[in-house]
Amino acid sequence: xxxxxxxxxxxxxxxxxxxxxxxxxxxxxxxxxxxxxxxxxxxxxxxxxxxxxxxxxxxxxxxxxxxxxxxxxxxxxxxxxxxxxxxxxxxxxxxxxxxxxxxxxxxxxxxxxxxxxxxxxxxxxxxxxxxxxxxxxxxxxxxxxxxxxxxxxxxxxxxxxxxxxxxxxxxxxxxxxxxxxxxxxxxxxxxxxxxxxxxxxxxxxxxxxxxxxxxxxxxxxxxxxxxxxxxxxxxxxxxxxxxxxxxxxxxxxxxxxxxxxxxxxxxxxxxxxxxxxxxxxxxxxxxxxxxxxxxxxxxxxxxxxxxxxxxxxxxxxxxxxxxxxxxxxxxxxxxxxxxxxxxxxxxxxxxxxxxxxxxxxxxxxxxxxxxxxxxxxxxxxxxxxxxxxxxxxxxxxxxxxxxxxxxxxxxxxxxxxxxxxxxxxxxxxxxxxxxxxxxxxxxxxxxxxxxxxxxxxxxxxxxxxxxxxxxxxxxxxxxxxx
Amino acid sequence: xxxxxxxxxxxxxxxxxxxxxxxxxxxxxxxxxxxxxxxxxxxxxxxxxxxxxxxxxxxxxxxxxxxxxxxxxxxxxxxxxxxxxxxxxxxxxxxxxxxxxxxxxxxxxxxxxxxxxxxxxxxxxxxxxxxxxxxxxxxxxxxxxxxxxxxxxxxxxxxxxxxxxxxxxxxxxxxxxxxxxxxxxxxxxxxxxxxxxxxxxxxxxxxxxxxxxxxxxxxxxxxxxxxxxxxxxxxxxxxxxxxxxxxxxxxxxxxxxxxxxxxxxxxxxxxxxxxxxxxxxxxxxxxxxxxxxxxxxxxxxxxxxxxxxxxxxxxxxxxxxxxxxxxxxxxxxxxxxxxxxxxxxxxxxxxxxxxxxxxxxxxxxxxxxxxxxxxxxxxxxxxxxxxxxxxxxxxxxxxxxxxxxxxxxxxxxxxxxxxxxxxxxxxxxxxxxxxxxxxxxxxxxxxxxxxxxxxxxxxxxxxxxxxxxxxxxxxxxxxxxx
Lengths: 482, 482
Ligand SMILES: Cc1ncc(COP(=O)(O)O)c(C=O)c1O
Ligand SMILES: Cc1ncc(COP(=O)(O)O)c(C=O)c1O
What we know:
2 copies of one chain form a homodimer. Chain A has helices at residues 12-25, 38-45, 49-61, 90-94, 104-115, 134-143, 159-173, 187-198, 219-222, 239-249, 270-283, 338-352, 357-368, 372-398, 423-433, 459-478; strands at residues 65-66, 74-75, 120-121, 182-185, 205-210, 226-231, 253-256, 287-290, 315-320, 332-335, 402-404, 412-417, 435-436, 438-439, 449-453. Chain A is of the alpha/beta class. Chains A, B: In the C-terminal section; belongs to the class-I pyridoxal-phosphate-dependent aminotransferase family.
């Protein structure tokens, strides 16, 4: 992103005014359209709000923009020889369609991070650069000749990748399958998107865990689904709750994240797995098993997935490289009955014509290489190390103010806040102090929880991040609640 | 894909029966589900239909499948200790959602190609392996250190790629823009998908060219849009037709492919470009300019895009690497006003969390490299050469039976068939003889047209392909129409 040049003799506000004038003249902000708020621009450009206010007043005096400082600022119509009807009402178009915008908290976090990359990041659910196998991947890329024909890919995904996933799934997840049952997707995310868009219809009732990663995705509401909650305890969701929901709402599908659940870290108990599968097959109810974290397990193998015990063929299984290698690869997979794989592959063609072949080649090489096992070992150790750093910092800074269960795998720690504080205010206080986390209400449960991702921040920043968070929390506690 | 081993002592039918039994036991075909038809399986496995019939009867005698040969074959319920309610009704789920399946002709062509890769391919709208810069890309990949942090990408796409697209768009397409107005997508396809899903609502009327690539995409119907046709002549679509459609149907958006239009090859005349833009700004009507072919122009620069003359900010511009480098890269871009870029980037996050970083790095390197210009020169020459081969073959084999206009860019030749033949029958006759093309009706116009892509087949196969096509056509002409 463009930033003003602090070494230049030209004042910051004038640089910003010129930059905005150019973007306006190129049509990024057509006549009549709204400019970003002063706060947002200041954050994006890394300057004080007063500098943006100066730049705006410069543009206002040139007749390029109009509207008062503070309330929305718009590009003028007249200056450009255009009358109101001349430009499409882009704002109205942007509000069209069925697609709900991302949750405000998630947008706010993204905005804060893109404006100030030095924020200590307990929010992004991914690995830090040093945990990702970047060097291994770079080596593989320079060693192998990627001269395969780069035409449109097979609708189910790159065949050699599907071929190496067969023994991978067998070895690490005890799942028996063939390449023809596998669909490669852009991470788990696209698998979830395809399921909600193509297998369910508006008005259908689905059950999801509470709290759950799924609540952070407006995708479920965008598809018009009615969401019903399965409370998660230490052993995950309870089969009896599912039966009750099914009776009352004719649930059409269940979404579970059985291992190191996001956000709670819970692991679905073996007894519950068995009863859930029995129930699913008794009711003919499909189960979506979202399983991105299993291989991060710090202490040996996690329980077998539902899919490995799925005699009745009730389970759609989803995996991903995001949490064990790199989220920027965008390689995930689904294992599903033929009718489903064909349907989803067909629909995906229409959305994006499939994934790029190159990251699929890289992923296949990486899985087959001698790098994979040592990488996993190192990843697990380092995740556990970071988890322990986080826990030590929390104990030092916040004893009595928070409580949590120690997770045995995954990237996240789910904390209950003892005092009652306002989610949004806590987030703003934290951002002001240079740290971000995800407010618990994003995951559907009542507020009063916080998700800390310990995988993304650098180990040496974890302490400072928690100190800042503790300051933010204490600042709110000092103010008497209204 | 698994194929039976023709060297093995085990008979083909027994290998196929074992293979199917395994896939059934793994849950690819759960109890009660339907197996692919005998014809389809035979095509996939590259065997005679009678071999599949034998394999099926073996499985039938083992009680694994049931149903008569010819009518649908299903996996039995009883053998697996399951009663009908035990498995989700996957077929019903596969029919859910709003998403229409791909067109039967497109599925048929894909099926035929995946069963018999040696078919001469005049159907796939892409470059052949030797036209793609595979070696250049392979060199770039081994030369550069791809150790950038592979985290979730910026919602608008990889910043260095957007940065090199700014001078690219300026140099080759006379478009002035900044990186903040660019959204990177999975080819043009995902740009179109995002526009239809997120900016338009069910029931909205849109205008598209007739014939048009867009008719081959059920995506427009899936979004519930009402489609109205702008007939295409040698100079593209006519502004007056758009005005008439707008009056009658309150058109909300226009989709145009102004340069070397797919399928006709037409180039929108300069006068019409100007009038279209005036009309769009008079009506406040957004224009989607889909421009994947411009840089293939065989004889110098094609006309400036609408976007370059778009003073009123009416145009959403879409470009892609698919037709000038490699479709398997899956890198395309949209240039649009800020409100639209932000909205679509936000929605795309929910669908797939963005593109893989690696192909975007590769695309950026390629654009910046000294390989790009020479590659373009070579590509244009070779496309023209293949076009001429195709035309020579058509003249030799089919004079009097077809007519066409010679395209000056792009990958396709659009032919009118003089005799009246049945689209689907012609396609089957052609597949039987080892060649595929796309029936014209896929693009929305009346039948009686054929699209030949000359870019995908190897130059040395073009002659033989057209001979086979001519045989197929003649075979139909000999049969008196009913
Ligand atoms: C439970 C769960 N499922 C799916 C995803 C999507 O990840 P990706 O698409 O990168 O695989 C995430 C990411 O945070 C997750 O936590
Ligand atoms: C006119 C047009 N637009 C868009 C596309 C989609 O191509 P891609 O998504 O590979 O860029 C095509 C492909 O054939 C096309 O012909």
